[in-house]
């Protein structure tokens, strides 16, 4: 069916070209050009050049007409081609236009999504840069606070740390860490000694103990009687019985009006 319309269109185009060329040739030269064969020729424009139209061109025209006639004869329903087929083509065209519109909407949606993703990626990159700057600032503040504490309580170690921090040698840092660990051990020992001293002072306030050095030195734990190690210790030997003199019958003078005389054991405390 499409071939019929194509052939008809080609034929009318061919005939229209011949008629146009004939009219143009008639304007330029109204006389009949006689050829060598004695036949009559008409002037025809072939592109930009002028050529002669002869009977040789008639077989081509006849072939085109014959092809059109055969296609029309072979068509089973001319009314279908004239009335129904244009509607079918119009419906197909509308369907194709609808598909193109749907495809256009999808393309616009994809483009919008891509722009949103690019915007989100840009915002995420900015947020990531901001978080990195904040984290670096927090780390710098933490390091500055620790260095401030060290400089306040141990300026000598802080100076050593400044020298070790600016160095790129492993030996310098290892030596500094060894000094820090040694000083840490010394501080732990001082902490233990000071804690013991404070405990003893709280347990025995000033004025109740005469020899605090003896108490501090005797810091060994006491053993309970239930301890099996205590039960293995043998008992003490019995004390000897010495004869004591009887002073009840002796006439000794005890002054009673002495102001420094001790009258009870409680006065010894």
UniProtKB/TrEMBL annotation:
Region Disordered: start-end pairs: 217-237
Listed name of the protein: Uncharacterized protein isoform X1
Species of the source: Fopius arisanus
């Amino acid at each position: 069916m499409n071939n019929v319309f194509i052939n008809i269109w080609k034929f009318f185009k061919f005939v229209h070209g011949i008629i146009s060329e004939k009219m143009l040739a008639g304007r330029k030269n109204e006389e009949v050009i006689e050829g060598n064969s004695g036949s009559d020729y008409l002037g025809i424009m072939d592109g930009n050049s002028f050529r002669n139209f002869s009977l040789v061109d008639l077989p081509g025209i006849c072939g085109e007409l014959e092809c059109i006639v055969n296609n029309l004869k072979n068509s089973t329903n001319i009314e279908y081609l004239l009335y129904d087929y244009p509607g079918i083509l119009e419906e197909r065209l509308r369907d194709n236009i609808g598909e193109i519109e749907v495809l256009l909407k999808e393309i616009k949606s994809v483009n919008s999504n891509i722009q949103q993703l690019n915007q989100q990626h840009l915002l995420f990159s900015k947020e990531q840069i901001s978080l990195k700057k904040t984290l670096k600032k927090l780390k710098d503040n933490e390091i500055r606070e620790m260095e401030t504490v060290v400089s306040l309580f141990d300026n000598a170690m802080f100076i050593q740390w400044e020298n070790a921090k600016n160095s790129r040698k492993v030996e310098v840092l290892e030596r500094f860490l060894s000094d820090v660990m040694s000083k840490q051990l010394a501080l732990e020992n001082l902490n233990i000694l000071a804690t013991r001293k404070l405990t003893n002072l709280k347990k025995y306030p000033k004025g109740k103990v005469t020899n605090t050095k003896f108490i501090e030195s005797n810091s060994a734990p006491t053993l309970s009687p239930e301890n099996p190690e205590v039960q293995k210790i043998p008992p003490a030997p019995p004390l000897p019985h010495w004869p004591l003199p009887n002073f009840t019958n002796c006439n000794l003078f005890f002054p009673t009006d002495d102001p420094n005389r001790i009258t009870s054991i409680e006065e010894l405390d």
